[in-house]
Amino acid sequence: MDQDVQLKITDRDGKLHKIAAPVDMALNLMEVVRLYELAPEGTIGICGGMAMCASCQCYVLSEHPLREMQDDEQAMLSEAFNVRSNSRLGCQIQITPQMEGLEIELAPED
Amino acid sequence: MIETDIIIIGAGPTGLFTVFEAGLLKMKCHLIDALPQPGGQCSEIYPKKPIYDIPAYPEILAGDLTDKLLEQCKQFEPGFTLGERAETLEKQTDGSFIVTTNKGTQHKAAVVAIAGGLGSFEPRKPQLKAIEYYEDKGVAYMIKDPEIYSGKKVVISGGGDSALDWSIFLSEIASEVTLIHRRNEFRGALDSVDKVQELKNNGKINMITPAEVTALFGEHQLEAVEVTKSGQAAERIEADNFIPLFGLSPKLGPIADWGLEIEKNAIKVNNALDYQTNIPGVFAIGDVNTYPGKLKLILCGFHEATLMCQAAYQIINPGKRFVLKYTTVSGIDGFDGTRKEAPKAVVKSIN
User: Fold this and answer.
1) Where are the domains of chain B?
2) Whole-model pTM?
């Protein structure tokens, strides 16, 4: 049985949530945020997770090694707003056991 | 005034399938959509992406699904008001509704079906100081009438197909076109990228990458934009027009003010029966509605549309009895005079 990983997610109102994310459900970070309803429905994951909108943009605050950015994620972020050097699209980051303790902050809504 | 039986707000898959199901019950539909083409998210966001959970289609591209839905409902002659956003809903004393768009087009029907998905698609606006002040004073997020850019100095920003295509188009008529993007790479059709490269080489398009527009200037009208190239000092470029093309994002918009019960950015409906909202005669189907156990799937929208049409029939034909007919048995009589039916079995004796 796979263990859950503990994540720290700061929502758009600045509130910190410590949540457990399962690693065996093929979830990505955007889906975890929806699972725990940390952002209102309809404001995150609008394209469903195809890296075709930036509604799941987040800032990665910890030093965890994450999957490298693919072209489509890079392209989408280059058209997004409020982008920082640590911006990622949550939908492109699969939850893995290596993410124990990962800290992220949700970017503001467009 | 456009009059019909059912006004459908939203021409995505759910709205289009509603036309078919309503047609089987002899009800006419008219669709309103803020986008200039039918298909909703399927045509606007991901036309080239495959969908794997449409029953009987192991794989279908979202754009092809739209085409097939249009083909399927064609004989029921739906009306379309495209490129206009449904703005107001007014109940008349006779129980009917009038839906008026942002351009003032009026539609009247006994039943309104809101199949609005995540809402109407609105352009994403860059967060620049005073950008709203310059709207219609040189700043536009969509190009409606390209002729107004004739002889102008135009700055376009964005890295997708529309930024590329409009840069190409406007390079013919504007006095100067500058394309600004945060990366050197563009996401667009290969021939558009090649064409922009060629126009850049010929000096027809000024390209500034990786860079972004960081400020707008002008007294009563846009006169210049500030462009910041990464790692360099900002420079000012003269511009009559600035057209940021950063795609569209859906917003529930005016529907939220129609007195409907809203929960989680969606419209609450009665899922035990017919997906009616708290306003009798107004239904919400597909991704725009919510109820316990709701799943935002195209196939669920199809089911909801089918049940909703049964209830609409009772509103439009009060007291009239009705029995479900199978298309295989009854065939389909189109409003355009066409008829589809199963071929008759051949009866022939064997001697």
Assistant:
1) 2-122+249-340, 146-246
2) 0.85
